[in-house]
Specification:
- The protein has about 120 residues and is mostly helical.
- It folds into 2 domains: about 5-80, D-Maltodextrin-Binding Protein, domain 2 (3-Layer(aba) Sandwich); about 80-115, no CATH class.
- The chain is about 40% helix and about 0% strand.
- It has 5 helices and no strands.
- α4 (about 90-100) packs across α5.
- The chain starts with a helix and ends in a 7-residue tail after the last helix.
């Protein structure tokens, strides 16, 4: 199961199962595409997949904005982590250094995700 699904199940459904007749799709992109073209459809996706065709809804009166995700006001959010076996070296180290650099964080933000810095 995806991390997005597990967080949704835990935070939105209190650990309960999703209805057996719910349409389960394989990716955030597939959900966003289906919701965009299906009148009345709802789904859950990562923040970076919101678009003018797929609008966010409030959770406990709060929209999912960068500021409210960072502050913890928006409750259906989770951090993403990168793990390495020991100190990252070579290409792995270069990749992590790039992602954490101002240029990398700008790309993260341009893609609709919340930067760490």
């Amino acid at each position: 199961a995806s991390g997005t699904f597990e967080v949704f199940k835990k935070l939105a459904l209190g650990g309960e199962r999703v209805r057996p007749d719910a349409l389960m799709l394989a990716s955030n992109k597939a959900v966003a595409t289906t919701v965009a073209k299906t009148p009345g459809a709802i789904g859950y996706i990562g923040l970076g997949y919101l678009s003018p065709e797929v609008k966010a809804v409030k959770v406990e009166g709060v929209y999912p904005s960068k500021e409210d995700v960072v502050s913890g006001e928006y409750k259906l959010a989770r951090p993403l982590f990168m793990y390495t076996d020991g100190e990252p070296r070579g290409l792995a180290g270069e990749f992590i250094n790039f992602i954490l650099s101002p240029k990398g964080q700008k790309i993260v933000e341009e893609l609709g995700f919340v930067p760490v810095k």
